[in-house]
Amino acid sequence: MYVLIADFFKEDIPGGGEIVNDEMLATLSALRDEKAIKIHSHLVTLPFIEEYAGSNFIVGNFLNLSPASRRRLRRERYMIYEHDHKYLKTRDPSVFPGLQAPKEQLINTAFYRDAVAVMCQSKMHAEVLVKNTHLKNVVNASGNPWPEEHLQAIEEYMNAPKKNLCGIMDSPNQVKNTEGAIRFCKQQGYEYKLIPPSAHSDFIKELSECDSFAFFPVVMETMSRVVVEAKMLGCKIYTNGLIGATSEDWFSLKGQELVDHTRGKRTEIAALVENIFSPNNNSPYEDITVILNAYRRPYNLDAQIKAIREQTKPPKQIWVWVNDHEDLDGFDFSQLDADKIFRNDHNWKFYGRFAAALLAETEHVAIFDDDTIPGSQWLENCLDTMETHEGILGSAGVILEGETYNPHQRCGWPTHNEEVTQVDLVGHAWFFKREWLKYLWTESPITWDNGEDMQFSYAAQKYGNINTYCPPHPANDKELHGSILGNELGIDDKATSTNSSLSHQAFFSERDYCVSTAVARGWVLVKDQEK
């Protein structure tokens, strides 16, 4: 079943987006005799979504869709049929150089990101959206579905006698820039004809008498139906670089060829929507669950989540595990762009987040310390490393020199390793297969207060024959790094290693004991494997 959600429909206002939405839904319904309904966005409630849960939701313009309904829809299969640029505060990228807005202008990013697809009107439209959002679920419809009666009206007047006139849409809407088209005609010495707003067939009749059409909008037109219709009527087009239709290969067509091409778009776009909702349609997101830890640095969470959302291989979900501490009092976790939040009234210390990871349904899990912000290619780096060195991966590797924690050699972001390097343990950021968590829990930890990094690598090696590696951290490419602000964020009075309640010496004595105990139980260190 298809459910179309939009602010307005064509019976409310005869806008291009409203016409497109209705034509697409009508064709979808007829194509497979599929039931379809439509509802104004302001009427979409949580009970309504629950009633139609499991349906294929198509979201048109959604400014009147409540934040609560948007959040609930993100748990359903939905696509956004994008008609302009609602990912920007301005809804217009043309006011920015190169059609690229500053990041602070982006809005509604989570709603766009979690859609099965964001369907755009033209190649230009899709490219600008991707340039600004870096989304991987954008598809180009490469046209619009036209009402059959509109195409028939065009065919009726297609061969009307032409006059040496340049048609200009006389629009009261300033963004259509009627004055700019008039200035152009005067500068070129062209006679022009102003065509006022009217019924579609009347407008087409007036335009059919012109041998050219001038249109210079001041905002980007994602398609511009009027320009396409002028070409159908055989008019020469004078315009600027803000017309989406001009980016399409089919824009070289005109007359009956263009009408026939456009007529075929009805079923073509409907089939595209069917394919978008196909169970076989792959998600743009990788089979990864990310788990963040909140204890005494909740102020880092926004930056962490933002960096993770912008990964070149983004995860399916981001979870936040919250260990209780007074430093969290007053922090509003509901405002985070996270998918799940585990709010505890107890401090489960280092192992709690690994327990939460058992609930993940993805193949891979990535865990980050609260002082760790990854470069944009960190998860991609991990996936690539898994192809050649399958094992527990991390951003800060440690190679032990003896059967205690100190002394040791460091690897990863602190020292920059150009190649994949085998290590004894990793920290700051972990990446591993979810199924390997069973090894972590095979033995009780040596201590619950320290050493989860050692316990995981030791147990995975002993019971699963799984090694630990540090992916490449080249000095000249921090985007591959698992931590890009480790020194800036990690060395403060909130770090466990510098906690005033536990001396520096006591902390590392515990770690020495964890290493020596694990070695006694069968952990084979890298230095001994190399012999």
By CATH's scheme, which homologous superfamily of the largest domain applies? Spore Coat Polysaccharide Biosynthesis Protein SpsA, Chain A
Number of strands: 19
Shape: elongated
Strand content: 15-25%
User: Percentage of helical residues?
Assistant: 25-40%
Structure, described:
The structure is a single chain. This protein has 531 residues and is of the alpha/beta class. It folds into 3 domains: 2-140, 3-Layer(aba) Sandwich (Rossmann fold); 148-257, Rossmann fold; 286-529, Spore Coat Polysaccharide Biosynthesis Protein SpsA, Chain A (Alpha-Beta Complex). Helix content is 33%, strand content 19%. It contains 18 helices and 19 strands. Strands 11, 12, 13, 14, 15, 16, 17, 18 and 19 form a 9-stranded mixed beta sheet that branches. A 6-stranded parallel beta sheet has the order 2-1-3-4-5-6. Helix 1 links the parallel strand 1 and strand 2. The longest helix is centred in the middle third of the chain and has 22 residues, at 255-276. It starts with a strand and ends with a helix. 40% of the residues are buried. The model has no long low-confidence stretch (mean pLDDT 92).
Summarize the structure.
The protein is α/β, with parallel strands linked by helices.
Summary keywords:
3 domains, alpha/beta, 19% strand, Rossmann fold, 531 residues, elongated, 9-stranded mixed β-sheet, single chain, Spore Coat Polysaccharide Biosynthesis Protein SpsA, Chain A, 6-stranded parallel β-sheet
